[in-house]
Specification:
Layout lengths: L2 H17 L6 H7 L3 E6 L2 E6 L2 H10 L1 H8 L10 E6 L7 E2 L65 H12 L8 E4 L6 H15 L5 E5 H13 L3 H9 L3 E5 L8 H16 L3 E6 L11 H7 L3 E4 L5 H14 L6 H10 L4 H17 L6 H7 L14 H12 L3 H5 L5 H17 L4 H7 L5 H17 L1 H21 L1
Parallel strand pairs: 2-3, 5-8, 5-9, 6-7, 7-8
Antiparallel strand pairs: 1-2, 4-9
């Protein structure tokens, strides 16, 4: 057996044992999914991680747990220790930033260190949703947190895992990990959810801190009201005395010079006192317009991470969790039908599910395929000619990579053709309702395990290499544009 296969099997066995460990939360298991085993030397298992954040979590939070799981290897002369190497090439979603030591350590009184067992506090608490009182009896700032948006209710996938990990780390160690944390992505992909989840989890760990969630519109209105009522000093105190400022949709401050000035000084005050700032936007800082350079530069001080549209499996998981949380009984084939047809927006995805179940309840009808097709006929065009077909995908992929359709179904293992074939399989899996065996038949009667491997490989490449992500996105856009022209 090849050495890399041995190492892979060793890591798989280790993660299986860790997944059964009561000390491992879903968030900690998420960090393990970012690890890549690269070799064994003596008693050491060498692991690659994408960034300092993941390395720190493994070294500080998980070392004892991992070593306990590795202890059984001694009987078979296997590795009983591990060494971590950072390889930035396996993390394209993170843009590293220079963080100076003087801004990393918050005041001990503000963020008292807690035992590691407390860091595993349950998610989903609604603490902080209302006005809270600390030990001195003083009223904390109203946090404005939505009790539904917690880490526990957030579904992670390959397109949002790094943003989720960064948000979790910031909540656990305010102003020690990344400050500010800047999360960007299109509307409806979970940025607001992460903001609220950070606030809830931080309040669980540090009950005395002041957390404030605010949209850029609310910040603007608060500032305008403060000017009108001659209460600017109260406005400054309200925002500059918080420990966590979570500001949503910063792009809407575009062109509002006075409000930007107020936010600029608020940011400087919080950052200078080692208070955590988390910002979301639909665009990365470099693409924001109507902001001064000094503001853009501050957005880049900490960590930039993006959220992309979820893949099919994640969309199904989101629908399943939504159905469970709302006590909806929806068959899996219905969930998959919806997930295949609503691809770019989680709000739209959940809204579609709610519309289907509401229609069923109002008409006292079971949720079946006929009902779903009836409800969604004005949202999702039905009929084979209006859906993405395998033929559309094969045609688009062949044209994009300048190869023939026969090449895609042929036996050539040339790198360019193999990648094109894998991309075509991946898009078929994402954009059609075809089963794995059926997709395999379309590409030279290949086994369904080959299709599974191709989908996983393309998914991995899209997360590691931006150009692969761009290629797949361009092909899908071209397919949908061509279909729209035919309607």
């Amino acid at each position: 057996m090849a050495e890399n296969e041995v190492v892979t099997q060793l890591w798989h066995s280790l993660t299986t044992r860790l997944s059964a460990d009561d000390r491992m939360t879903p968030q900690l298991l998420g960090f393990l999914s970012l690890v890549r085993p690269i070799g064994v030397m003596g008693d050491n298992l060498y692991l690659e991680v994408p960034n300092e954040l993941t390395r720190g979590m493994l070294e500080q939070r998980l070392r004892e747990t991992i070593l306990d799981a590795m202890s059984g290897n001694a009987e078979f002369d296997g590795p009983t220790n591990f060494t971590i190497v950072i390889n930035p090439d396996i993390a394209t979603a993170f843009v590293p930033a220079v963080i100076t030591p003087e801004i990393l350590e918050p005041a001990e009184a503000d963020f008292p260190m807690v035992p590691s067992i407390i860091a595993g506090a349950p998610f989903g608490s609604t603490l902080g949703s209302e006005v809270r009182n600390d030990a001195t009896g003083r009223s904390n700032t109203v946090s404005r947190l939505n009790p539904k948006y917690t880490f526990d209710s957030f579904v992670t996938g390959s397109t949002n895992r790094l943003s989720h990990a960064a948000a979790f780390a910031v909540a656990e160690a305010p102003a020690k990990a990344y400050n500010p944390l800047f999360i960007y992505g299109n509307s409806g992909l979970g940025k607001t959810h992460l903001l609220h989840a950070i606030g809830h989890y931080a309040l669980n760990l540090y009950p005395r801190i002041k957390v404030r969630y605010v949209s850029s519109e609310e910040f603007t209105n608060d500032f305008i009201n403060a000017i009108q009522n001659n209460r600017t000093s109260q406005f400054q105190a309200e925002y500059r005395e918080v420990d966590f400022l979570l500001i949503d949709d910063i792009q809407f401050l575009q062109g509002k010079d006075q409000t930007q000035e107020a936010f600029f000084h608020t940011f400087n005050s919080l950052h200078g006192h080692s208070k955590q700032v988390v910002i979301t936007s639909d665009l990365p800082p470099n693409q924001l317009t109507g902001f001064e350079d000094r503001m853009i530069s501050r957005f880049k001080w900490g960590l930039l991470t993006d959220i992309q549209a979820p893949e099919l499996e994640t969309r199904i998981a989101i629908l399943r969790k939504k159905a469970d949380s709302e006590n909806m009984k929806v068959p899996d084939d219905i969930l998959e039908y919806i997930a295949i047809r609503v691809v770019s927006n989680i709000r739209e995805l959940e809204g579609t599910l709610i519309r289907v179940t509401a229609f069923a309840n109002l008409n006292r009808h079971a949720v079946d395929m006929q009902l779903v097709q009836t409800v969604l006929k004005d949202i999702v065009p039905l009929g084979e000619s209006k859906m993405v077909s395998a033929a559309d995908i094969i045609k688009a992929v062949s044209a994009y990579y300048k190869i023939s359709a026969d090449d895609l179904s042929g036996s050539s293992r040339a790198q360019a053709i193999a990648l094109a074939r894998q991309v075509a399989m991946y898009i078929c899996r994402e954009q059609t309702s075809l089963s794995l065996p059926k997709i395999g038949q379309l590409f030279g009667n290949r086994d369904h395990t080959t299709v599974m491997y191709a989908c996983k490989k393309v998914n991995l490449l899209m997360n590691e290499r931006r150009y692969v992500y761009n290629q797949v996105s361009e092909i899908i856009t071209k397919i949908k544009t061509d279909i729209a022209k035919q309607l």
